[in-house]
Amino acid sequence: MKEFLSKLRKDYSLMGLHEHEMEKDPIKQFEKWIIDAANANITEPNAMTLCTVGKNMKPQSRIVLLRNFDHRGFVFYTNYYSDKAKDIEENPHVCINFFWVDLERQVRIEGVAGKISQAESNEYFQSRPRLNQISAWASPQSQVIQSREELEQKVKELEEKFKDLPVIEKPPFWGGYRVVPTMIEFWQGRPNRLHDRIRYQLQNDKSWKMDRLAP
Ligand SMILES: Cc1cc2nc3c(=O)[nH]c(=O)nc-3n(C[C@H](O)[C@H](O)[C@H](O)COP(=O)(O)O)c2cc1C
User: N or C, which terminus of the chain has less Cβ within 10 Å?
Assistant: First the structure.
C-alpha cells in the first residue's frame, strides 16, 4: 500500500496567487473563487468540511452545504439536535474547509458559529423541495435508528399527515448556523509543492490583515 500511495502524485500548475490581484476583502475574494468553482463545473462547489470540537475535546468533521454567505458570515443548515449542533452549543469555535481539486484550490476558514433567526431559517426551508422538507421532519439526525425501513415508514406517515397542507412548516429542531469568520486562507497549488498561501486575519478594528504563508 505504501508503494501504491507513493505513486499517487499530482503536480499543480494551473496558476499562482499574487498579492496585488487579491481583493482586500476576503469575502469578495471568496465570492470570486466559488463562482470560478461553479463555472469550472466542479460537483457541489458549495460542499464544505465543517469541523467542530465539543466539550469532550474530540474534533469531528463532516460535509455540509454552504447555503449563503456575505459580510456577516457563512450559512449552513442542519438539525439542531445533531452531533454537530451539540458540539457548537458547547463550543462555537469551528473551522471550514473547501477543496476544489480541478482548480487546485483550497480555502480554510476559522470562525464562530451561531444560530440564525427563525425567520431566515423559515425562508430557506420554504425554498427546499417538498420531499426534502419531509426528510428534515423524518430524520432524527445523528441518532441510532433500527432500520432503513423505519425511516421510510416515517416519511410515508408524514407524507400522509401533510398531504392537504400547501405549506409544510419548518421543524422547530431544524435551522441554520452562521459562521462569523476570523481567519480565511486561500491556497493555490503550485509546481513542486511550492504552493501559494494568502491568509486574511480579522483585526480589532474589523479590517483584514493579509499575509503570505510558507507552503
Ligand atoms: C455532499 C454532502 C452534503 C451534505 N450536506 C449537509 C447539510 O447541508 N446539512 C447537514 O446537516 N448534513 C449534510 N450532510 C450530511 C453530513 O455530512 C452528516 O452526515 C450529518 O450532518 C450528520 O453529522 P453529525 O452527526 O456530525 O451532526 C451532507 C453530506 C454530504 C456528503
Answer: N
Instruction: Specify the pLDDT at position 181.
Output: 98
User: Which residue has its alpha carbon closest to ligand 1 atom 18?
Assistant: 62
CA 154 vs CA 62, 115, 157: distances in Å: 25, 27, 5
Q: Which residues are catalytic?
A: 193
Q: What percent of the chain has pLDDT over 90?
A: 100
Ligand 1 centroid – CA 64 distance (Å): 5
Question: Rounded to an integer, what distance in angstroms lies between the CA atom of residue 155 and that of residue 198?
Answer: 46
Q: How far is the CA of 63 from the centre of ligand 1 (A)?
A: 5
Q: Which domains does the chain have, with CATH numbers?
A: 10-128+171-212 (2.30.110.10)
Closest by CA position to 212, among listed 17, 21, 25, 28: 17
- pLDDT < 50 positions in the chain: none
pLDDT of residue 162: 97
